[in-house]
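The authors assume throughout that readers already know how a fold can be written as discrete tokens. What matters is that the chain and its backbone geometry are given together, residue for residue. A single example would do more here than another paragraph of explanation. For illustration, here is how one protein appears when written out as sequence plus structure tokens.
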Amino acid sequence: MKVINIFKLSIPFILSFIISILIGQFKIFIFLLSITLFHELGHIIMGLIVKYKVEKVIILPLGALTIFNKKINSNIIKELLVTIMGPIFQIILFFFINQDKYIYYNLYLLIFNLLPIYPLDGYKLLQIFLYNVIPFNKVNIITLLISILVLILLLILRPTSIIIYFIFIIFLYQILKEYKNIKYIFNKFLFERYLYNIKFKKNKLILKKEDMYKYKSHTFIINNLIKNEKEILAEMFDKP
């Protein structure tokens, strides 16, 4: 795959590009874009190091989203390293900026990116933490609800900002799209567990598939019988 074909411009990004020209903010727009790309470069480099394959990079108005072709049941250390490397690259960028205005923009984007809003890095970090203490499917639902609550809070704090309304619409649309995929994501999570030999050091005793954790193996108690994870998933996926 050619590198140029990996990058995809979202419609909101194109609209933002046009608006920046019309209102005379093209220079600032290009600077924000350069921060976004440098930030995303951190994710991509670490992703390649841990042997994730880059599928595409979607450019958004205030950030970008790198889609890796990887298993849902990935190693927690790999996921954490890939997630934090974007903000780390952005922190490194402070050493190369010598104008207060651009330092402010970089700081603003860094803080914004760490908010728990899908699909920002703050959201991913929250998920990584919660996957250790709450079942996989519940985490996906809870974090999307938190995303909506944080967006509403932004509206309350900055009700007269047109930019905040624009951000709200874009991210709300992304959140609703992800919510529609929750059932598919959970089924893919289960199928990977069935298809591959995925094991974790920690084992959790549970009663049903909906109680499965992302970073744990499981033993099931069904009708007073003890069954391992593979047996339960085989009953689900081996049906004709």
Summary: The chain has a mean pLDDT of 88. The first strand starts at residue 7 and ends at 9.
